[in-house]
Write a structure and sequence with these properties.
Length: about 375
């Protein structure tokens, strides 16, 4: 437990109130509540841009056991709006760690609460669905917090990708490599880029609203559409860009939000899920090979399954074995495919990293 036992309050949009202890920044935070089932990898979760505007419940009983390390990040700052946990552990076991989680959250201005019955809270979210919430360790008036919470916008219809995208273009990998991939950054994780670079690609990362003309100036062999936060249906600018990319007839690979944008570009609608998929242990079946993968996931929106199944030019490649939701598609008439989950798997198992190999192989086949 942290040395201070300063009280903190969590209020849900449906009126439920939970009491606990403050850690991290003393303050107030709002966002959509969600839960992650992973037992490890909390620092990578906190720095994933796809968690922008969300307050995360970590399901493990203890948080902070192995401290924090400068290299265990997916972006240049913590992206969650707040953290809910059962027990904070400030004494960490990992000798390579740079410090404890409490100090890390303070440095990144993140409001957090522990001593919450997270099992009861997650059970409630699973039953009632995702909703907005507010955490405060400075305002302990529940009625005042409810009034503040009423002004928080819903995630449904919220465009966030452009707020976390890079503001400037940058490049990674060997500039002399013949494999050139133009990346559209809607909130990309660093390890996605590293997985491309590790396979010999020279990548140039572009801001979310980069026009197709600028992407083509890089003379890429393929295009990558990244993950990111918010509602894909609110991103008309991105859907239009993806439509243009498909006209180039070059390999296209999308992950998570990129998967949803590829679907929208082909007339397949997306929808807000009841409570989303977030964790490191979600079973997905590859329909093409018949094999099962244990996957890392983080998404609150999905692709309409009926629309995919009725689309003449889109084929389902992966399904979630928990709820049969669509986890992967590929186009029959274009060299384009996407998955809803995160094959870079940081944190998580590496069962799905073959998808990066498939993308590079697709590029090489069209170069020859």
């Amino acid at each position: 437990m942290p040395q201070t036992k300063q009280p903190a309050i969590l209020v849900l949009a449906d009126g439920h109130v939970f009491y606990g202890h403050a850690f991290g920044k003393i303050g107030t935070a709002t966002g959509e509540i969600c839960f992650n089932t992973g037992m490890t990898g909390y620092q990578e979760v906190f720095t994933d841009p796809s968690y922008t505007s969300q307050i995360v419940i970590m399901n493990s009983v203890h948080i902070g056991n192995y401290g924090v390390k400068d290299s265990d990040v997916e972006s240049d700052s913590v992206k969650i709006h707040g953290l809910i946990s059962r027990n904070l552990e400030e004494q960490y076991s990992r000798i390579q760690a740079n410090g404890n989680l409490n100090d890390y959250l303070k440095a990144n201005q993140i409001v957090a609460i522990d001593n919450v019955d997270t099992r009861a809270l997650v059970t409630h979210i699973r039953a009632k669905g995702a909703m907005n919430c507010i955490i405060s360790s400075e305002i302990l008036d529940v009625d005042a917090l409810k009034k503040m919470l009423a002004d928080v916008p819903n995630m449904d219809g919220l465009e966030l990708a452009s707020t976390v995208s890079t503001k400037e273009e940058y490049e990674m990998g060997d500039a002399n490599s013949p494999l050139k991939v133009a990346v559209l950054d809607f909130g990309i994780k660093r390890h996605i880029l590293q997985c491309l670079v590790d396979r010999g690609a020279h990548v140039r990362v572009h801001p979310a609203k980069t026009p197709i003309s600028r992407l083509k100036e890089f003379n890429p062999n393929g295009y990558f559409i990244s993950n990111g936060p918010g509602d894909p249906a609110a991103m008309d600018y991105a859907v239009d860009t993806v439509k243009s990319l498909l006209q180039e007839d070059k390999p296209v690979f999308g992950i998570c939000l990129g998967h949803q944008l590829l679907a929208l570009a082909n007339g397949i609608p997306t929808f807000k899920m009841h409570h989303g998929h977030r964790g490191l242990n979600h079973p997905v079946k590859n329909i093409i090979t018949g094999q099962c993968e244990i996957t890392t996931q983080n998404h609150g929106f999905g692709v309409d399954p009926d629309a995919v199944r009725n689309h003449a030019e889109v084929e389902i490649t992966h399904v979630n074995l928990n709820d049969q939701s669509i986890e992967g598609i590929r186009l029959k008439n274009k060299p384009a495919f996407s998955v809803q989950y995160h094959p870079e798997s940081t944190p998580g198992p590496h069962d799905s990293r073959y998808l990066f190999d498939d993308f590079i192989a697709m590029i090489k086949a069209r170069m020859n």
